[in-house]
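Quick start: load a record and inspect it. Here is LysM domain-containing protein:
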Amino acid sequence: MKKLVFVLACCLSLSTWADVLTLKPGHPQSYVVKKGDTLWDISALFLDDPWRWPKLWGANPQIANPHLIYPGDRLTLVFLDGEPRLEHKPSVRMSPEPRVTGKGAIPALPLSVIEPYINYHTVLSPKELKDNPVVVGGERDAVAYAQGDVVFIKDSLPIGSRYGIYAPGRPLQDPQTGEMLGREARLSATGQVIESGSISKLQVLSSRSEIIPGQRLKPISDETLLPGHFTPHPAPEGLEGQIIASDDNAREIGPLQVAIINKGSEDGAAPGQVYAIHQPGVEVLKSGRGDKETYRDEVTHRAYDKVMSLLSDGRVIVLPEVYRGEMMLFRTYDKVSYGLILNGRRPARMEDKVLRPEPMVFGERSDP
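Running the structure step on this input writes:
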């Protein structure tokens, strides 16, 4: 009974200590926000765990964007009931024009990196690939079309509605189940419906690349614009996934590069969520005896080793998972999400595991 009480006390102690917000050694006492800053950058000045920004800020998670931050604002570190908090003093504006809420506020992530994935990329679900309107030709006798052309769309579309025309890209599959999660697509052009019927006509208003028959349409909506100013926060408890692709098919992914995971809005994924990245435990195979004992990883397994690992007990050893870094989601679709690699301690790789991050329990205590 005493042992049980002791174990419970230790668990409660560790849980309480992990919940204590620890400040980064050498943190500033105050900071003036500069143009080009991101919430992640500023949070990393004060915290070893930048995703714990809402706790440092004292934000109410039930209120969206309770405090937008702008260049020129001053953030000052104070202690309330022994807990560190940042006080926010907005900059004094000399212009007579009122500040428009959200306009010019610093983003969570660098927009220069994520903007192309918001404005010019999408993921078409299997249903969209089957049902969305498709380009079947155009008024001009050509094999490809561009800005100013009128193209034919196989569907009855409302006059005046606006669409993006997308060229299909690579398929995205779940590495475990093989399920088709969607297909990447890049924006070729935008247009507006000028005539409706079983074959509708769409005027091409702008084009980034050629339009060819077979490309799919997707309505232009607020979701295709840059997301709101979300704040970093940990992924939900129990939501785990894998990295299934990178932005340029690279084998390894480093800081400020985009990774795609096999979890989407249907699973509870949302912009602003931060995930820890771990290399799954690697299996090594024990062979030999005594001073000739060796251990091979799965890459150097011989065919004989693989057979023996299936027949013998105790020959396969699973090594611990290895922490690689963190990523923050900035765009989610039904079954996949795009995120930016941050805090890359080691390069992330395909099929690495992503899960809710755990607070650091060592560092500077938050004593006043």
